[in-house]
C-alpha cells in the first residue's frame, strides 16, 4: 500500500559528545521516508527544498524508490536548516538555531496520484498545514501525526483539531505531559485518547516506547546499543518503520500494531548508530529482521 508523508527536509548541523555533522541531510520527512522505504510498496514524499539542496540527496531518495513528485524545489530560496546539540544525556536535543527558509511559506499541495494514499503520516509541521493535507487525501485507512512543544504551546486549538481527525498520535514523553497538562503518563494518555486518536504512542528515547489504546498498553524497550553517535531523527525513523510496516501488511490489528512498534524501534536503533542517514540508508532487510528478532529475545520471558 502507498504511504504518504508530509514534513521537513533539512540540512542539519549536529554536535554530540561523539562528533559533529555539518549541513548533513536531515528533516522529519527524510528520516521517515527512508525508514519506511524498507517496508511500504510506495512512499510518497511531500516537502520543500531550496535551490541549494545537493542533488546527491535527491539521488538517495530515488535509490530508496521514494516517489518525489511531491517534493517541491524553490530554486530562488534556501533549504530549511536546523542546528542542534546533545549532551551526554542523548535523550534531549538542544536547538541552537532554526532557519525556516523555504519551509516558512510551505504549502503542502498533493499531486493528484498522492490523494489516493491509504496510509498518511503528518510529521511535525504547523497543525494548520496538517489539516490542509487531511483535506486533500481521499479515504485513507490509517492516519498518524507527530507534533512538538512549539505547536503545543503556539497553536493548541489547531492541534486539537488535528487530533480529532487522526487515528494515531506519536510523540515523546515530555510532549505527552505538556499536551495533557498532566504529569502522570498513564493519566495523560487517557486524556489525549479522549480527544480523538485511537492510539497514542509515547516515545521515550533510549528507554523505548509505550503504546496506549482504549483497552491495551504495550511496552517496547529501547535496544541496548553499545555505540550511539547521533539521536537526531530517531523519532521519525521510528514512525517510518511503524507506518511502513502497517502499510506493508495492510491489516491493522493488535498483533500487527505491536509488530509495527518493534519495527519502528528497530529502525530508530539503526538511525542512532551513525550521523545523519549514514546507517539508516545502508541497511539490508535481513539486518532489520535480525534486530527485530533480537528485540523479541530481549523481552521474552515465560509465564509462571
Ligand atoms: P527527531 O530527532 O526525530 O525529533 O527529528 C529531527 C529532525 O527534525 C531534524 O533532522 C531536523 O531537521 C528536524 N526539525 C527540527 N526542528 C524542526 C521544526 N521546527 N520543524 C520541522 N522539522 C524540524
Give a structural overview.
With 304 residues, the protein is α/β, with parallel strands linked by helices. The protein has one domain: Ribokinase (UDP-N-acetylmuramoyl-L-alanine:D-glutamate ligase), CATH 3.40.1190.20. The chain has a 9-stranded mixed β-sheet, sandwiched between helices. It has a 4-stranded mixed β-sheet with strand order 3-2-6-7. β2 and β3 form a beta hairpin. α3 runs parallel beside α5, α8 runs antiparallel to α9 and α9 crosses α10. Bound molecules: adenosine monophosphate. The site of adenosine monophosphate has 14 residues, from β2 and α8.
Summarize it:
The protein has helices at 28-36, 55-63, 127-136, 149-154, 156-165, 173-180, 185-193, 234-249, 254-271, 285-299; strands at residues 2-6, 10-16, 19-26, 42-50, 66-74, 80-85, 94-99, 119-122, 142-145, 168-172, 199-203, 209-212, 217-220.
Amino acid at each position: 500500500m502507498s504511504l504518504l508523508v508530509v514534513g521537513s527536509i533539512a540540512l542539519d548541523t549536529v554536535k554530540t559528545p561523539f562528533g559533529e555533522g555539518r549541513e548533513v541531510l536531515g528533516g522529519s520527512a527524510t528520516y521517515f521516508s527512508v525508514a519506511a522505504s524498507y517496508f511500504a510498496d510506495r512512499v510518497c514524499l511531500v516537502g520543500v527544498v531550496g535551490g541549494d539542496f545537493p542533488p546527491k540527496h535527491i539521488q538517495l531518495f530515488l535509490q530508496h524508490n521514494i516517489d518525489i513528485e511531491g517534493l517541491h524545489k524553490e530554486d530562488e530560496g534556501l533549504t530549511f536548516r536546523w542546528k542542534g546539540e546533545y549532551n551526554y544525556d542523548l535523550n534531549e536535543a538542544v536547538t541552537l538555531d532554526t532557519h525556516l527558509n523555504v519551509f516558512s511559506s510551505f504549502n503542502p499541495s498533493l499531486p493528484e496520484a498522492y490523494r489516493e494514499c491509504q496510509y498518511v503520516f503528518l510529521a511535525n509541521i504547523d497543525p494548520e498545514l496538517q489539516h490542509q493535507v487531511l483535506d486533500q487525501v481521499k479515504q485513507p485507512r490509517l492516519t498518524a501525526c507527530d507534533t512538538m512543544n512549539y505547536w503545543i504551546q503556539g497553536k493548541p486549538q489547531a492541534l486539537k483539531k488535528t487530533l480529532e481527525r487522526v487515528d494515531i498520535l506519536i510523540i515523546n514523553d515530555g510532549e505527552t505531559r505538556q499536551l495533557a497538562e498532566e504529569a502522570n503518563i498513564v493519566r495523560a494518555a487517557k486524556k489525549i485518547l479522549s480527544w480523538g486518536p485511537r492510539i497514542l504512542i509515547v516515545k521515550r528515547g533510549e528507554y523505548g516506547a509505550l503504546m496506549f489504546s482504549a483497552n491495551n498498553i504495550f511496552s517496547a524497550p529501547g535496544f541496548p546499543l553499545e555505540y550511539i553517535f547521533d539521536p537526531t531523527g530517531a523519532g521519525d525513523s521510528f514512525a517510518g518503520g511503524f507506518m511502513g510496516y502497517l502499510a506493508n501488511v495492510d491489516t491493522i490489528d493488535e498483533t500487527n500494531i505491536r509488530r509495527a512498534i518493534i519495527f519502528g524501534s528497530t529502525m530508530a536503533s539503526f538511525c542512532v548508530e551513525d550521523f545523519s542517514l549514514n546507517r539508516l540508508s545502508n541497511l539490508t532487510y535481513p539486518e532489520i529482521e535480525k534486530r527485530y528478532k533480537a528485540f523479541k529475545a530481549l523481552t521474552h520471558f515465560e509465564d509462571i
